[in-house]
Amino acid sequence: MPDVQNQQILLASRPTGMPTPENFRIVQTPVPEPADGQLLLEILYLSLDPYMRGRMDDAKSYARPVEIGAVMEGGTVARVIRSRHSEYAPGDIVLSHSGWQRYALSDGENLRKLDPALAPISTALGVLGMPGFTAWAGLLQIGQPKPGETVVVAAASGAVGSAVGQIARIQGARAVGIAGGPEKCAFVRDELGFDAVIDHRAPDFAQQLADACPKGIDVYFENVGGQVWDAVFPLLNDFARIPVCGLISQYNALPQAEPGPDKLALLMRDVLKKSLTIRGFIQREFAALRPSFLREAGQWIEEGRLRYREDIVDGLERAPAAFIDLLQGRNFGKLVIKV
Amino acid sequence: MPDVQNQQILLASRPTGMPTPENFRIVQTPVPEPADGQLLLEILYLSLDPYMRGRMDDAKSYARPVEIGAVMEGGTVARVIRSRHSEYAPGDIVLSHSGWQRYALSDGENLRKLDPALAPISTALGVLGMPGFTAWAGLLQIGQPKPGETVVVAAASGAVGSAVGQIARIQGARAVGIAGGPEKCAFVRDELGFDAVIDHRAPDFAQQLADACPKGIDVYFENVGGQVWDAVFPLLNDFARIPVCGLISQYNALPQAEPGPDKLALLMRDVLKKSLTIRGFIQREFAALRPSFLREAGQWIEEGRLRYREDIVDGLERAPAAFIDLLQGRNFGKLVIKV
């Protein structure tokens, strides 16, 4: 392919607070040649997810940071265009982790073949991919909602939150969602069927949440932190479970302590008095359960009980701006770049 | 018994911060007469435990507060002296929850007969009672220490902490204790056999703890809070488990937020990045496991692998002062009043 160039988006510098377009750099490079045992992949879809903000920092975490000058990482759906690997043929569609670029090599490890007849291939990055699995595993393994219990989740129109609420309802629990703005709230209530939805921009947000949870909160699926946590905290019931999968409101700034009682001391007091469970997790630790997830979620989608919305942005070069929008809550549904 | 009077210690007023002797009132009352189906108990030993501080407050918790003017509650070992109940005879020794008094009626519910030949009867309030069971259940059910892991516990010479460290070692883990003063530290290291012990009064306490935990902390059994938590927190490993059974440093004052980063935000960030589990509990929720505990702990005591120390104070009237000492860490071993 002498005329075709690879396009890659690199981490140019580490952000302070909210990332800016200057933290990224787009470069053109030659399309690489697969060696023996390798494949050349053409990326079709790139997933953009809040966790990527953490990879931009040079801090200890459950995953290594992206190096300065390296390709931004990310989950991708790709087509095999050349293969020197016995298990893959040109035309195969695979789930890979090829990052923010048009072409990538693979040695076949950590690839999963996708069947385009089963579901739109982009769903492998959303409702049937990492976000859907995060929702399923965190809610069922840690949250363990029982029939009649109240489950609260924020970013309820997003990739993870939308699945959390719907799966809670499938378990017989009551789902209360939190979203930003009337359009997202209407979607969560009317399309996803949550029992109640609250706009976190409302001035009386905390009171509205309390009114929507008359029997308290049994499971709070934490993916945002900040003011939502403050409103949820006093409503937690005895033995409430709090799977913590994200803290998007905190990724770009570390809040300073406020005057008044030490919130950490208040938290620990209630952990003790209410026998609370707070459990951080990443979906990877539940990897052995992925086949069960794919079977269950696939069936729920087929039955119309698990719906999803994708926010597809066209063009790899728009990934940095779309990612910054994501961190500011401006996407609507699972954000995917059509490369 | 015409000459004998009952002696009772009542809650006279609710404390603000650390209790004072004025919060208690000692009264003489007639010894009650058992009705049909009732027993009259003579209290031999009264257990004093940090959780009782919570019962003195008028705040929502997992247990109802003691009413003003009511007898302070507490676990007791008692002798049946009159019985109008078919299952108990005079002379029987029982574990009861009769509170801070010399005589009490019982309808036979929530009593457990003790065999004085098996172990000293006071141990039913300590290593074989609620504190021992709290240690066993919290450590094994929530902490789940694995061989080679590091377990940290404070108040390590106390009723719960001493059992936590020894049971951790029986599981093959490394036990690091925290205690106050050279005498308690020597006991924890030399008598209880902890792998390391740190004096929390040392000016370089946090550094000493870090040095004693070169591979980080996998289980922190939380029973004190405050400065111990601050030293433990940065040492927690990925997937660390934190059973929370008490916060004795916080019972008497709610700390004000300090300037600087919001400790709650820092906590939640690490919960997420390290996949931490924080789980408040009370031993009652594990009640079904008590027979297993009694079997295991009884055997460990017999084998000399689970040691205990009692701090026996003579005279019911000394209970208020002894309880205040307990909250200030001045007891040494499981505090029991010999009534």
TrEMBL record, chains A, B:
Keyword RNA-binding: no
Keyword Ligase on entry: no
Gene3D superfamilies named among the record's database cross-references: Medium-chain alcohol dehydrogenases, catalytic domain, NAD(P)-binding Rossmann-like Domain
Keywords, alphabetical: Oxidoreductase
Domain of life of the native organism: Bacteria
Stored SUPFAM superfamilies: GroES-like, NAD(P)-binding Rossmann-fold domains
Protein name: NADP-dependent oxidoreductase
